[in-house]
């Protein structure tokens, strides 16, 4: 069984999180510039087996696509073409940035560390992945 990789996609930066090989624990992987993401994934997939890619889907409180969907939708199409052997899942990412900030605050991170957007993006990816894992576990 391969890992699950979560992507918190942004127009500038992308937060990445991944499960262990048993799909029990979600861990932050890294943050990369959005233009470098495909190359990063190609290299990562050469080293690790990943079966599922979960991409955060930004929605409004009214459950409509948010403005940032205009960046994510074309990326998802490109990802599906580039990695046809991977299952691509979209997962609601509402409030993940706010939850990431709260997690950093609760974890005792200093203000300077909490302001690092790369950290917020990676923690958001972890939250997306954990929520997705809980959701799919409850569906079985």
SSE ordering: EEEHEHEHHH
Domain unit count? 1
Overall geometry comes to globular
CATH superfamily: YqgF/RNase H-like domain
Gap between N and C termini: 16 Å
- Return the CATH architecture: 2-Layer Sandwich
CATH topology: Nucleotidyltransferase, domain 5
Strand arrangement within the widest β-sheet reads 3-2-1-4-5
**In CATH, what is the class?**
Alpha Beta
Largest sheet: 5 strands, mixed
Q: How many strand segments? A: 5
Summing up helix and strand content along with how strands pair, one would put the structural category as alpha/beta
Question: What share of residues is helical?
Answer: 40-55%
- Which radius of gyration do the C-alpha atoms yield? 14 Å
Strand content: 25-35%
Produce the secondary structure layout.
Layout: E1 3-9, E2 13-19, E3 26-33, H1 37-47, E4 50-57, H2 69-82, E5 87-92, H3 96-106, H4 111-114, H5 117-139
Parallel strand pairs: 1-4, 4-5
Antiparallel strand pairs: 1-2, 2-3
Helix pairs in contact: 3-5
Provide key terms for this protein:
140 residues, alpha/beta, Nucleotidyltransferase, domain 5, 5-stranded mixed beta sheet, 5 helices, 5 strands, 45% helix
